[in-house]
What does this fold into?
Amino acid sequence: MRKIRRWGPGLLLVSPSILLVSVFVYGLIGWNVKVSFSDWRQAQETSGFDTGAYGELFPGDAGQTDDFLRAVGTGDQPDSLSTDPAWIIDLHHALLFTVVFVLGALLMGAFLAFLLDKGVKGEGFFRAVYLFPMAVSFIAAGVVWRWLMNPAPGDRSTGFNLLFDKLGIGFLRNEWYLGLDWGAAALAIPAVWALSGYIMALYLAGFRGVPEELREAARMDGASEWRVYRHVVFPHLRPVTLSALIILGHISIKVFDLIVAIGGKQLITETPAVRMWILIYDARDYAKGAAIATLLLLGISVLVIPYLVYTVRSEREA
Amino acid sequence: MTTVALDHGVKLRRRRRTRAQVVKYLALAFVALVVLLPVYVLLVASFKSGTEADPSRAWALPEVWSLDAWREAWNGEQYGLFPYLKNSLKLVIPATLLSTMLGSLNGFVLSRWRFPGADLVFLFLLFGMFIPYQAVMIPLTQIFLEVDFPEGLPRLVFAHIVYGIPITTLIFRSYYATIPEDLIEAARMDRAGMLRTYWSVVLPVSAPAFVVTAIWQFTSIWNDFLFAVFIVDDPAQWPVTVALNNTTGSFVTPYNVQMAAALLASLPTLIVYILLGRYFMRGLMAGALKG
Amino acid sequence: MFERLRRVRPTVLAAALVAAVAALALPASGLGVEGKSDQACQLSVFSWWTGGGEAAGLTRLIAIWNKAHPTCKFKNETVAGGAGSNAKAVLAKRLAAGNPPDSFQGHAGAELRDYIKAGQLEPVDFIYKQAGFGKAMPASLLNQIKYQGKIYSVPVNIHRANVLWYNPKTLKANGIAVPKSWAQWMTALQKAEDAGLIPLAMGEQWTAKHLLETVMIGALGPKGWAALWTPNSQARWSSKAVTNALNRYNTLLGYTNSDAGSLIWQDAGKLVADGKAAFNVMGDWQDGYFSGTKKGGNLALKPGTGYGWAPVPGTDNVYDWLSDSFTLPKGADHRAQAVQWLTFLGSRLAQDTFNPVKGSIPARKDANAKLYGPYLKSALKDWKSDALAGSLTHGVVASNAWNADIDTALGLFLQTKNVGRFQTALVAAAKKNS
It folds into this structure.
């Protein structure tokens, strides 16, 4: 009985959150899954059971739609994962974007926090400068970065290409987000710009959460400053890194307005998140939009949940 | 003899340290410069008039410095942001305060006042971060309608609180995990209940986490467009981001007005960063109490 | 402050927190929410006219309305973004949730078909009868927007999509004549390329689709074009005529700028105005951009000297039209006002007030030409005599779903330039959607 009195209040305190999340997250996910298995393909809501939407994203018999998608196939894309080549392109873009964005923001943020950790004159100023990009809404940042990443050739060059030329590093010129292979990486740059400051703040809080005596003790033992960092500070940063990865990851999967602000709604910059929007609100293909949402969540679950479980468990053991 | 040698060593170490400092400053300054390049372009474009604000002249300073775009962005008939600032404030302040509080309580319980299955509950809440909002706008608004939730801003505040639960809980939980166990134990020995422990032990050292969470929530709620445009039907109640988006005319986009509006819209958030940044410092001093 | 609060029992504080949350959930008086004005006269009109001439034109209409209906509040609900894509999304949500505006803007034609099929619109033939719109608007137009014999919207304006824009000074300086046929255009484009100009300025993907439709209309003619959009038209899509059209399109793409994907439509037009490109194909809102005031972000050029226009070569005497129109949603809260609004919109007064400012011509046949600028005057003339072809890109001939499939096919074609595959994809799209 005492045990319940011990943890009962805790459970009670978080129960409203559990309830709200159950309804507004899992309930709506359930709605999505239901719609993805329906035949609601246009404005009129219908509720028959139909796997047609999935059929277009995976090989299978979806009749006429299959013909269309196979017809559109470029032949360069592997057919095994899907009959919808635009879907494959979307996935490539999302993957490249995620890797560049997450790694970029993580490394940049950690690096900046490392520089600021020991305290520098004007730290407040630097902090505000690095944080400012996050204050600019994605829609507006998108427009500016579209200007900066302008791929115009020759004497119409502007933006960074022009700057590179003027600074004598013209070899850095490139097509930015219009590049067929690396375009998605270019899209990640504004996202890194926007989020590095925040990751820096997270790491800074983490760095400074390390009790000074621990650092002192290590120094007394003759450890160099670098060793102090490696063996005393960095281990303390695991929970921060977890938070950072999750924050960056969840943005990367859902980001939509930044991409549309830079690249518009074109295949060359399309990601599943953008496609979802187009399907649901422009084409009114609710089942397919819901199918993409469901697949995304599935993919996230497969990738993220084991990682989360592992980290949470190892935290406990620490 | 030895004093000279010592002196030398100290001077060497000092020189090495100053060199390191210089390198550090250079690095910080360089990064700051790069980070501010887009801001420069935004600023410069906002002071241009008419079609001078054009992608082909992104770097050029304005030929004629003009406040027209700013005037239009602030109070203009077509694009003025001012009337909507009130709405944004009414939205952001309660939503940030409440979601941060909620996150703090959740984070505390899930890390330091655990119960069987606490980790599961944490994962359960955390997964909510990954839901793609564009896919659930329609059923979300249907729920609001069915329950006859008060229209307009209250719905928006509610939505932001609910969808803010995962991330605020995440940040606080990982922060509270670093509180030394003996402090909690000590409170328990004093027969302090859950809320008292929270109040007297955990809350006082939470400042950095509050700052970091508040910064996040303020920013995402202030800059949110998706929820705002879908949940709030009445244009009079729209927050600033919807008005900002409306500076993109459906045909011609007046770039200078758009950029002035973007800068205006980002100012409150910047002010929040600067203000909270000070508490950040203070909180860090208090954090030393943990030791 | 913390010190004093420390003495307050935590439980009391918790209760206060809960109370705060509860207070928030109650119908808020302090949050400035207007109570739903029930039977008060009101008219909520939903559109995406948030800027420039269109917003100005709408403002004028609202002024007239407010004068005529001083007790009836006009609620102007506009959402910006990409030719209405954000607005359409919000609209979709509102309609799905059973909370429609009293009237909303939509492109006349197939784009409204989704709403019609979903039973979300009321037919407005009775308004046409009462107000005599049937006689005032061209029969060919009305036929093209009927669905199963009924009309579901009132067109306010007409825009033309198949317009070729050029800079007379640039052409003169390089000895290029304004092309009147496909062959002449090829020559002109080659001359431009040799002179170091961008032969044809193009923007992001949707403008490529816009270009495609003008090429196809030119190659197939209005009748051939219309036939592509009839039920079960896949056979027509696989015809040699379409192959020919797509090949022409492919050739044309070879003359466009490599950075097209990074330009919005007005940026592409500016290339022509600045003398960097020879030609641009765009709808006649380009005229508004070229000749409008600098304050509004336009170029303030003189029509005829700063810029010139002609029908896209091959589409002489064809009007590739699109139209902004307003609808009567089912279950509108203020139906009577909505009907009044629609009746007003179809009137000569409304259309001649709105269109000169907006930069389009009225749907009615009896416009007062004196009110319109030089380009629009010529458009009015053409509108009277040209054959009509409905726009693809702007929702006349194909539904949203069909358009989305064509977008996918086009996006891939722009990367692969494989005409055969493109055509097969278009055939399949027709099979799926027609």
About this structure: Residues 83-317 of chain A form a domain with the MetI-like fold fold (CATH 1.10.3720.10).
